[in-house]
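We treat protein structure as text, and this decision shapes the records that our systems exchange. Such a record has a labelled line for the sequence and another for the backbone structure tokens. The record that follows is passed on verbatim for readers who wish to inspect the format:
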Amino acid sequence: MYVHPALQKPASGTVTRAELAQALNMALFHDLVQRVPASQDYIACDVVAQKRQVVFDHGALRTVRWPSGALPGGEAAFTRVLRPLGFALQDTYPLPRLKMTGRAYCHQDFPQDIAQFFVSELHPEEFSSAFQTTVTRVLSTSRDPLGAQDIADLDQLTRDGTLPLQQALRLLPHLIACFGRQHDVFALEDYEALLAESAEMAWISTEGNAFNHATDRVADVDAVAEHQRALGRPIKDKVEVSASGRVRQTAFRAARVEREFIAAQGRVTRSVPGSFYEFITRAELAPLAANDPVQAPQLDLAFDAGNATGIFGMTAARA
């Protein structure tokens, strides 16, 4: 993976917020790759074998703006982590077709080099009352992976922008734990009820707040898609193009995973959609001053609601 040279300094007694953010992102990327076989093939054959690097563009996760047991509801469970690490809200993207809202968080110190977070919230109040009751039941057992010491460490990081090395080493696994499923095994009939109204909520019910996808920034997403298709890998049929024309995205189809549910006969296992690996190409923005030779080119780091809605379809396959 590409890592900015400023984040590859020799180890010292302190860790900056950017270094901790990069470490978290790399751990979460690794976790996703372990869960998506197509991405393992791509990285082994198309990246490592060709001596290339992945440029980690963004990771996406799904949340629910609803009472969630001991866990803060919706994106609040993550903004308490992202802001101390140096991420700031970049933009908001309504996703009305999915009854969700997406928000992009970009790193303030290394906006082009540390992967962004695209955090989406589902709004159960826009669904049926029966759906809302089911969401409440499924999420009610959620645990909070962060304890009092973790919150204190994040407060210190917010204040100082750094943490002592040993504190950062202790905190990092707790931050990684936030990006998982926090609620217990639940009834199969509840899963089916959620799936009937929202494939996205059904996905959250089995996968929790794990990365829904991680995205590799490539020079030519259309060429990558064509090559993956020729190799027989499960690439999406279409490349999504933003309204601006500057952002182009496609993805491998979601991996299938086995998840346990509670049924009348006891525990049962079902195959459901898991996570996936995405590709993106970002064009450069026009310079602010057309005749300024000093100004460094800036990538268009924005997202697109239409693209996001299309990409979310990767996990919409009915179980």
Summary: The longest strand covers residues 56-64. The chain has ten helices and twelve strands.
